[in-house]
């Protein structure tokens, strides 16, 4: 008769075998475990970012409504969705004179989803659906300030900077008090605030499997906080995708993947609107890029939510629909990562404030939509545009520019006319007589130069 110890050993062996079988059969990702989606592994160099404001992107103004248009994003080659803030908007001191919603950058609860956009389950479905299409999802992180009716003002007033408004203050920028009167400045000298903010950032990655953040006014938050925060996020999900709304190279040292190409954008507008010489813009391109750490990238754009709301959409800034095409091609054929702001591809002509819902009419006839679809296909299929080096051939030109993007397997020649007039520009002699193929028409050319009609752009691929 077996002894009691022998029986226990036999039972243990059976139990262990059963457990191994269960574990071996269970291949599903455990709940609340961040995925390792294809989108996560895509290089930042290959990113195509689409900035989305949920109230505008669909008639419903919801996560579910936005999901119905994911086919559209795929046609544009989008692999990274940047969601403007998804949290409840503050009501106290809200700037409803600008728009009835108030500012989405006035956050009332960092841990909640704006109920007007849908439920937590709806947001989770949005992220899952994007991942199923190999698209990242990053969300806006407003770490510098909160709404006046955020519970922290009552629960943790020590987490805010002292000031003249009932003991609090609105944010200060470059030594001047801002007009952001609907928000309150947080105090990053407080270690408990730092810990809570990092815990919150980890929460959205862990619980909803988001892929990273776009950090609003990142330069107003201490750099050492970002270093620690990004390290902490990578302990939950690696890699995370981090975009800083700032132009400082120090943001890359803190761990951000991308920073804004603000100086380039500002001078590009002046080149189109004020007729400034292109040579000045070339100097900015070269000097700013020289300051970046190796491997660092800029996000390049011809508009974003701020510019479309407070200045004007691209057609109004860049000489109409044709000029806006050329501005976008110019910005995104330089080294960096392209951004499309929702509605940009429709050729919106009037400012669109984000303090109110203005759903886009996606069924309206748009002469720009075919351009964006065709151009973005060229962009996403081009190694030279995504990863190539930049060689400016005519740095002293006033009105048109010739430059090359060169990668191991591809060489492109790009010609840009930034004027509403015909311009002639010649190739340097060592590049004359070479054979190229137009990437759009397929025509074979052997140019010594180009006569470009107003706002014309050309992209040619070197013949093999």
Overview of the molecule:
There is one protein chain. With about 475 residues, the protein is α/β, with parallel strands linked by helices. Helices cover about 35% and strands about 20% of the residues. Strands 1-2-3-8-9-10-11-12 form an eight-stranded parallel β-barrel. It is globular. Pfam families: Alpha-amylase, Malt_amylase_C. InterPro entries: GH, GH13_cat_dom, Glyco_hydro_b, Malt_amylase-like_C. It comes from Longimonas halophila.
Tally the beta strands. Answer: 20
- Biggest β-sheet strands, sense, barrel: 8 strands, parallel, barrel
What name is given to the CATH topology of the largest domain?
TIM Barrel
Specify the CATH class of the largest domain.
Answer: Alpha Beta
Percent range for helical residues?
Answer: 25-40%
CATH superfamily of the largest domain: Glycosidases
**Which outline best applies?**
globular
Q: What oligomeric state is this?
A: single chain
- Strand arrangement, major sheet: 1-2-3-8-9-10-11-12
Number of helices: 17
Strand content: 15-25%
What's the architecture of the largest domain in CATH terms?
Alpha-Beta Barrel
- Cα-to-Cα separation, first versus last residue: 83 Å
